[in-house]
Amino acid sequence: MIRRIAIATPVMISIVATALADAPTMTPVGYWEATDHRTSKPSAVISIREIRGELRGRIEKLINPPNGEANPICTKCPGCKRNQHVLGMEVVWGLKREGNGFSDGWALDPVDGNTYHLRLDVVDGGNRLKVFGYVQVIVKIGRTEFWRRA
Description:
By secondary structure, the protein is mainly β. It has one helix spanning 2-22; strands spanning 30-36, 41-51, 54-62, 73-74, 84-85, 90-98, 101-108, 115-123, 128-136, 140-149. It has one helix and ten strands, in the order αββββββββββ. It starts with a helix and ends with a strand.
Protein backbone atom coordinates (compact mmCIF):
# COMPACT_ATOMS: atom_id res chain seq x y z
CA MET A 1 0.00 0.00 0.00
CA ILE A 2 2.76 2.46 0.94
CA ARG A 3 4.62 1.52 -2.23
CA ARG A 4 1.54 2.36 -4.36
CA ILE A 5 1.19 5.74 -2.67
CA ALA A 6 4.91 6.42 -3.17
CA ILE A 7 4.59 5.66 -6.89
CA ALA A 8 1.27 7.50 -7.38
CA THR A 9 2.24 10.71 -5.57
CA PRO A 10 4.90 11.94 -8.06
CA VAL A 11 2.60 11.05 -10.95
CA MET A 12 -0.27 13.08 -9.46
CA ILE A 13 2.02 16.02 -8.71
CA SER A 14 3.24 15.95 -12.31
CA ILE A 15 -0.31 15.90 -13.70
CA VAL A 16 -1.45 18.78 -11.47
CA ALA A 17 1.65 20.86 -12.24
CA THR A 18 1.16 20.38 -15.99
CA ALA A 19 -2.51 21.37 -15.76
CA LEU A 20 -1.69 24.49 -13.76
CA ALA A 21 1.09 25.52 -16.13
CA ASP A 22 -1.24 25.24 -19.13
CA ALA A 23 -4.24 26.95 -17.49
CA PRO A 24 -4.75 30.61 -18.33
CA THR A 25 -4.63 32.98 -15.41
CA MET A 26 -7.84 34.37 -13.89
CA THR A 27 -6.34 37.75 -13.15
CA PRO A 28 -6.65 40.82 -15.38
CA VAL A 29 -2.94 41.48 -14.90
CA GLY A 30 -1.19 40.99 -18.22
CA TYR A 31 -1.45 42.08 -21.83
CA TRP A 32 -4.81 42.51 -23.58
CA GLU A 33 -5.78 43.22 -27.16
CA ALA A 34 -8.41 45.95 -27.00
CA THR A 35 -11.09 46.35 -29.66
CA ASP A 36 -12.25 49.66 -31.08
CA HIS A 37 -16.01 49.80 -30.53
CA ARG A 38 -16.40 51.98 -33.63
CA THR A 39 -14.82 49.47 -36.03
CA SER A 40 -14.95 46.21 -34.01
CA LYS A 41 -11.30 45.69 -34.98
CA PRO A 42 -8.27 45.35 -32.68
CA SER A 43 -6.95 48.80 -31.80
CA ALA A 44 -4.24 48.44 -29.15
CA VAL A 45 -2.40 46.19 -26.74
CA ILE A 46 -3.01 47.32 -23.18
CA SER A 47 -0.81 46.15 -20.30
CA ILE A 48 -2.65 45.90 -17.00
CA ARG A 49 -0.61 45.76 -13.82
CA GLU A 50 -1.39 45.89 -10.13
CA ILE A 51 0.23 48.63 -8.06
CA ARG A 52 -0.50 48.70 -4.31
CA GLY A 53 -3.82 46.90 -4.77
CA GLU A 54 -4.95 49.09 -7.69
CA LEU A 55 -5.14 48.01 -11.32
CA ARG A 56 -3.68 50.37 -13.90
CA GLY A 57 -3.37 49.97 -17.65
CA ARG A 58 -1.32 51.63 -20.34
CA ILE A 59 -1.17 51.46 -24.12
CA GLU A 60 1.85 49.36 -25.11
CA LYS A 61 1.18 49.00 -28.84
CA LEU A 62 -1.18 50.59 -31.34
CA ILE A 63 -2.80 48.39 -33.99
CA ASN A 64 -4.05 50.23 -37.08
CA PRO A 65 -3.70 53.69 -35.48
CA PRO A 66 -5.97 56.47 -36.74
CA ASN A 67 -4.62 58.30 -39.82
CA GLY A 68 -1.75 55.79 -39.94
CA GLU A 69 0.24 57.74 -37.33
CA ALA A 70 2.66 55.50 -35.41
CA ASN A 71 2.22 57.48 -32.19
CA PRO A 72 -0.61 60.02 -32.40
CA ILE A 73 -1.08 62.84 -29.93
CA CYS A 74 -4.22 62.99 -27.80
CA THR A 75 -5.52 66.46 -28.62
CA LYS A 76 -8.92 65.82 -26.99
CA CYS A 77 -7.68 64.31 -23.72
CA PRO A 78 -8.39 66.22 -20.50
CA GLY A 79 -5.89 67.77 -18.11
CA CYS A 80 -2.27 66.70 -18.10
CA LYS A 81 -2.89 64.06 -20.80
CA ARG A 82 -3.84 66.69 -23.38
CA ASN A 83 -1.33 66.85 -26.24
CA GLN A 84 0.54 63.81 -24.94
CA HIS A 85 1.51 60.82 -27.08
CA VAL A 86 -1.03 57.98 -26.97
CA LEU A 87 1.60 55.22 -26.96
CA GLY A 88 2.59 54.66 -23.33
CA MET A 89 -0.38 56.64 -22.02
CA GLU A 90 -2.14 55.34 -18.92
CA VAL A 91 -5.78 54.82 -19.96
CA VAL A 92 -7.05 52.60 -17.09
CA TRP A 93 -6.67 53.40 -13.39
CA GLY A 94 -8.26 53.16 -9.95
CA LEU A 95 -9.69 49.63 -10.18
CA LYS A 96 -10.10 47.79 -6.88
CA ARG A 97 -11.13 44.16 -6.32
CA GLU A 98 -14.87 43.71 -5.80
CA GLY A 99 -16.13 40.13 -5.59
CA ASN A 100 -14.81 38.24 -8.62
CA GLY A 101 -14.12 41.39 -10.62
CA PHE A 102 -12.58 44.84 -10.34
CA SER A 103 -14.59 48.06 -10.21
CA ASP A 104 -14.65 51.72 -9.21
CA GLY A 105 -12.02 52.50 -11.82
CA TRP A 106 -11.71 54.85 -14.73
CA ALA A 107 -10.94 54.50 -18.42
CA LEU A 108 -9.88 57.16 -20.91
CA ASP A 109 -10.73 56.84 -24.60
CA PRO A 110 -7.82 58.64 -26.28
CA VAL A 111 -9.73 58.92 -29.57
CA ASP A 112 -12.45 61.21 -28.22
CA GLY A 113 -10.90 62.23 -24.88
CA ASN A 114 -13.86 61.00 -22.82
CA THR A 115 -13.41 59.40 -19.40
CA TYR A 116 -15.71 56.63 -18.17
CA HIS A 117 -16.32 54.65 -14.98
CA LEU A 118 -14.96 51.13 -15.41
CA ARG A 119 -15.52 47.54 -14.29
CA LEU A 120 -13.40 44.54 -15.37
CA ASP A 121 -14.22 40.83 -15.16
CA VAL A 122 -12.01 38.00 -16.39
CA VAL A 123 -14.10 35.49 -18.36
CA ASP A 124 -13.72 32.42 -20.58
CA GLY A 125 -11.17 30.75 -18.32
CA GLY A 126 -8.91 33.81 -18.32
CA ASN A 127 -8.77 34.26 -22.09
CA ARG A 128 -11.03 37.30 -22.34
CA LEU A 129 -11.60 40.43 -20.31
CA LYS A 130 -15.12 41.84 -20.01
CA VAL A 131 -14.71 45.62 -19.99
CA PHE A 132 -17.77 47.63 -18.95
CA GLY A 133 -17.38 51.38 -19.38
CA TYR A 134 -20.23 53.58 -18.22
CA VAL A 135 -21.48 56.93 -17.06
CA GLN A 136 -23.41 57.05 -13.80
CA VAL A 137 -26.63 58.98 -14.03
CA ILE A 138 -29.42 57.41 -11.97
CA VAL A 139 -28.44 54.05 -13.43
CA LYS A 140 -25.27 52.88 -15.13
CA ILE A 141 -25.43 53.62 -18.85
CA GLY A 142 -22.60 52.21 -20.89
CA ARG A 143 -21.23 49.55 -23.15
CA THR A 144 -19.41 46.26 -22.75
CA GLU A 145 -16.39 45.24 -24.79
CA PHE A 146 -14.45 42.01 -24.69
CA TRP A 147 -10.66 42.15 -24.89
CA ARG A 148 -8.61 39.10 -25.83
CA ARG A 149 -5.50 38.10 -23.88
CA ALA A 150 -2.49 39.02 -26.01
